[in-house]
Amino acid sequence: MKATTTVPRLYNAISTPPHPILRHPLVIRTPTSTQRPFVSSSTLTPLQTLTASRILPYPSSALYNLITDIPSYPSFLPYCSSSRITSTSSPDPTYKKQWPRTADLQVGWGGYNESYRSRIYCLPYQIIEACAGSAEPTIPKSQLPHYSDASSAESTKDDIQDNPLFTSLLTRWNLHEFPFKPLPPEGGLQDGSTGSAEANPAHPRTEISLVIEARFASAVYSALSQAAAPKVAGMMIDAFEKRAQEVLGKGHGVEGRGEGENKGEKLPTEGVVGEEGKRSE
């Protein structure tokens, strides 16, 4: 008797399978750690750009030293309750001076207090930039050789950490000194002359501008900042101006102002610039 082999029946696309209940395979999906978080700070918190400018009756070097005196901030700067320099740069090639490289600051308002670390970049007596979170300096690296040594770069890398307050923060101070020669009194001097260069010398003035670009790490902090945002940059410059008067004296005066009115000239560049480029006062 010849042996036979049973061949399983093949079902085509239009055949009815023997077990209709298993027509569609069961797929079990498991959650993964790459799922989008419930709150995304990059989409919920807009970038806020705050600006302010002043012309102050002091040399730029004196004002620059006040801005880089980070440990003194709690004594005069609004919202700052603690600040300390945690590391310094190598000596810069021109002035052979070490400048702040990292600093820890604590700020608070409305019952909230947070600490964060800033990475500082100083182009001596011209620009100071403080970066936190993912923010990067805008000063070309070629102009910052005192921040480029290997140990400094490695330490800076270690200092970048999760920031509970800001996703990114860039604070930029620009200082530009120029000579100012006040006009002689109306009608000339008491002797009837219009005054000589020696009798009416030029004095240094400094245009100081502040730009803050901030993106908060949470929608709560972003919302809380909205009310104060239009005034923050101006408040900071006002605080440094008052500090300059305390440390440096009244300066050389401002044209057209009487004694006791020695206050810096407010430039028409103060307010908040939104992501669309519109300014609000």
Architecture overview:
The protein is of the alpha+beta class and 281 residues long. The protein has four helices and ten strands. It has helices at 41-44, 60-67, 150-159, 219-248, and strands spanning 48-56, 80-88, 100-109, 112-123, 127-133, 166-180, 203-216, 265-266, 271-273, 279-280. Strands 1, 2, 3, 4, 5, 6, 7, 8, 9 and 10 form a ten-stranded antiparallel beta sheet that branches. A hairpin with a 3-residue loop joins strand 4 (112-123) and strand 5. The longest helix has 30 residues, at 219-248. It is globular. The protein starts with 40 loop residues before the first helix and ends with a strand. The model is unreliable at 10-16, 18-42, 152-156, 254-262 and 274-281 (pLDDT under 50).
Sum this structure up briefly.
This protein has 281 residues and is α+β, with helices and mostly antiparallel strands. Helices cover 19% and strands 30% of the residues. Strands 1, 2, 3, 4, 5, 6, 7, 8, 9 and 10 form a ten-stranded antiparallel β-sheet that branches.
Which H/E pattern describes the elements?
HEHEEEEHEEHEEE
- Determine the number of helices (DSSP H or I, runs of at least 4 residues): 4
Binned strand content: 25-35%
User: Which oligomeric state applies?
Assistant: single chain
Provide mean pLDDT, rounded. Answer: 74
Envelope shape = globular
Layout of helices and strands:
Elements: H1 41-44, E1 48-56, H2 60-67, E2 80-88, E3 100-109, E4 112-123, E5 127-133, H3 150-159, E6 166-180, E7 203-216, H4 219-248, E8 265-266, E9 271-273, E10 279-280
Antiparallel strand pairs: 1-7, 1-8, 1-9, 2-3, 3-4, 4-5, 5-6, 6-7, 9-10
Helix pairs in contact: 2-4
